[in-house]
Amino acid sequence: MHPSGTSLSLRPAHLPHYVALITFVVIVFTSFYPFTGWAYSGRPLLEFLTYAWPYYFRLFDNIVNYLVYVPYGFALALTLKPRWMGWLLALLLSTLTSFSVEFGQQFLPERVASNLDIAYNLAGAATGATLAISPLFRRVWHRVWQWRHRYFSPAAAADYGLVILVVWFLTQLNPAVPLFGVVIYPGGLPQPYVSPLENPLLFLWLIEAGGAMLNLTATLLFATAFLRDRRYIARTILTVLVLAFFLKIVAAGMLLKPIAFFEWINPSVMAGLAAGLFLVWLFTRFASRGQAVGALAAVGAAQGVAALWPLAPEAGEALRYFRWSYGHLENMSALVEFLSRLWPWAATLCLIFFLWETRD
């Protein structure tokens, strides 16, 4: 039973609404970044709808345009019943979103409005919506729902926590940022900064190690706080660590220049991770509410430590590590940075909701 006395199976399912909202924000952000240089070219505003195919073709763009709308259509289709109405709603809102994005991109010199993009967007949304209402999905979802109930708390906050944890994994796709880290050393000449310690290098070392320690602690305690049983703690911690490291290695192999494959690994980060594992071990001695409090404190402290970092990278600094030379990397880095800024706030709200929901 839910703490409020309501059966979990009867609880309203608001999760698809939030997944759809997050996906919508990601679509808008990546479509209009960097939100500058707005201008009207003077051409007919709906001209892009009549372009002969393919007016603008890039395989990478087409794949992204398709894939990003799959979860969008999937989530939208689950927000309304009966299922066929959910499917229609997903196609309608996806069409409106895609058209609005392409229409707005006409006013950005670095963007190209394309009817082909709309076609790929709608194909992705239709795929996601069809999967959402298919009998196959219902069987798969039943297994996922069983897995969720077996391992995680019946509290509604656990549902949102799982989505937020997926968002955190997405923030690890930039291999130029240290694992569980928050800083990138800028290139070029040394920057002057004020150090509260006599040894300025020690100050930088402590900030970087402290950031890694607190980020690791916050992430792992965030994951373990929602577990149903303490015997799942070790495997959860191992899963998060292995998956995060795997994502870093894959991203490095795909995006980084060979000389920079392990640029994000350094002694201060490793020391911070070791200290973070010790803190996690201490906090997991407590019950789930204690772990949630620890995660909440670590999330806030990590943001405070990140604010103390005195060096400011130049625009596009992180891109020097990459072997891709076109604008997709700038968009990807901006998206990862956006999600990195979003994650602590979303995690904080989720943890507060969990503490409120499980109060005595």
Automatic annotation (TrEMBL):
Glycoprotein recorded as keyword: no
Q: What is the lineage of its organism?
A: Bacteria, Pseudomonadati, Pseudomonadota, Betaproteobacteria, Neisseriales
Quote the protein name from its UniProt record. Answer: VanZ like family
Keywords attached to this entry: Membrane, Transmembrane, Transmembrane helix
Kindly list the residue ranges recorded as spanning the membrane: 15-35, 55-80, 87-106, 118-137, 202-225, 237-256, 268-286, 293-312, 332-356
Pfam families listed in its UniProt record: VanZ (PF04892)
Domain of life of the source: Bacteria
Start and end of every VanZ-like domain? 21-133
